[in-house]
Amino acid sequence: MNIPEDAVQLRIFLGENDRCGHRPLYEAIVLKARELQLAGATVLRGPMGFGQSSRLHTAKLERLSEDMPFLVEIVDSKEKIEAFLPVLDGMVTASSSSVLVTWEGVKVLRYGKVS
């Protein structure tokens, strides 16, 4: 049995149209996380959601949104996530986007080959 390791899961809620320079913000975040050798990052596209504006974003055909909700999840040690936060802050500030970031402690179980 694997021993659970303490880690942190960072969740970044943003929109499909949020940009960082010439790239989508979600893509820029994942590429920067990879460059900084964080353990892993995943982008999820939501079929429906709303944020602080309460404007509904949905993929339903009768109201097709062009700014679908996206979620970037990053998992790593507390120290590496803390070091990443100022980088993320700079990217979000430069993009003039409105994002929501959450942080929670998680237990990580490793299965399979770990390289």
From TrEMBL:
Top-level lineage group: Bacteria
SUPFAM superfamilies per UniProt: GlnB-like
Pfam families the record matches: DUF190 (PF02641)
InterPro entries referenced in this protein's UniProt entry, alphabetically: N-reg_PII-like_a/b, N-reg_PII/ATP_PRibTrfase_C, UPF0166
Family: Belongs to the UPF0166 family.
Name of the protein: DUF190 domain-containing protein
